[in-house]
Design a protein that fits this description.
The complex is a heterodimer. In chain A, 79% of the residues lie in helices and 0% in strands. Chain A is an all-alpha fold. The N and C termini of chain B lie far apart (70 Å). The chains are: A mainly alpha, B mainly alpha.
């Protein structure tokens, strides 16, 4: 029988306050994606990306640029959270799992930065 | 623990808990796996095309011209059609999940109806979107 106290046994095993963080963020980003996604798909359907002249004029509108940045940032956050669960469900080898999670994180950060830089370049150049 | 030191019993085929194959296939199961499949499709294909399109647009007319040419080819339209259905299915299924997160919609009949509703809504929204785009 261990002589250690309860607090001594759990100390260092992680905070008890962030267990639902992933779950919450997936839901919060989902609500963001529902609103921004519908806005983007309706915009695209109206032909704003049909050619570069129209796309540049569209992104030149500050409100559009701001919403587009929010869309890309929220999208890759949501993708990061969603793919993490898929990897954790299907990849059981610890090394492969960690490698996949790091790869997904890098890809999502890269995607976010690529989108944001491109949007800003178009918006400031418009 | 009672099997320890008794290899014949420890190696014997142990019963497994019931898995997918024992359940009758239903719309809730299809919607569940569709949510993951559409999410993966949107993440990889949608994410890649979003990044490509924006970088191309920021690079200039030639790069964006190539992007538009690929996206308006037959395969391009097929991809856009698939992505639009995936988006609406993931959206409807996601809204169903948010509803279920409140503890609602677990009654067998209602659960089945709402699962079917996500597929009907996503199909209708996809048809409506492309009707607006093409007509």
């Amino acid at each position: 029988m261990s002589m250690r106290s309860n607090i001594g046994r759990v100390r260092g095993l992680g905070s008890a306050k962030t267990g639902t963080h992933h779950w919450w963020m997936q839901r919060v980003t989902a609500i963001g994606m529902a609103l921004l996604g519908v806005w983007l798909i309706v915009s695209l359907a109206s032909g704003v990306a049909a050619d570069l002249t129209r796309l540049t004029a569209w992104i030149g509108n500050p409100v559009v640029a701001i919403l587009l940045i929010l869309f890309c940032a929220t999208l890759f956050y949501h993708v990061r959270l969603g793919l993490q669960v898929v990897v954790e469900d299907y990849i059981h080898s610890e090394g492969l799992k960690v490698a996949a999670l790091v790869g997904i994180t890098f890809a999502c950060v890269l995607g976010t930065v690529a989108c944001l830089f491109s949007i800003l370049k178009i918006a400031f150049g418009a | 623990l009672i099997f320890e030191g008794n290899p014949t019993m420890a190696d014997a085929k142990r019963p497994l808990s019931p898995h997918l194959q024992v359940y009758r296939w239903g719309p809730h199961m299809l919607v569940s796996i569709l949510h993951r499949a559409t999410g993966d499709g949107l993440a990889f294909a949608g994410g890649a095309l979003l990044v490509w399109g924006l970088i191309a647009a920021a690079s200039g007319p030639a790069a964006y011209g190539l992007f538009v040419a690929v996206m308006t080819s037959k395969i391009g339209y097929l991809v856009m059609f698939g992505l639009s259905f995936a988006f609406f299915q993931h959206l409807c299924s996601g809204l169903r999940h948010l509803h279920m997160d409140t503890g609602a919609g677990y009654e067998l009949g209602l659960n089945r109806k709402l699962a079917l509703a996500t597929m009907i809504c996503s199909t209708l929204l996809t048809v409506l979107l492309w009707a607006v785009v093409l007509l």
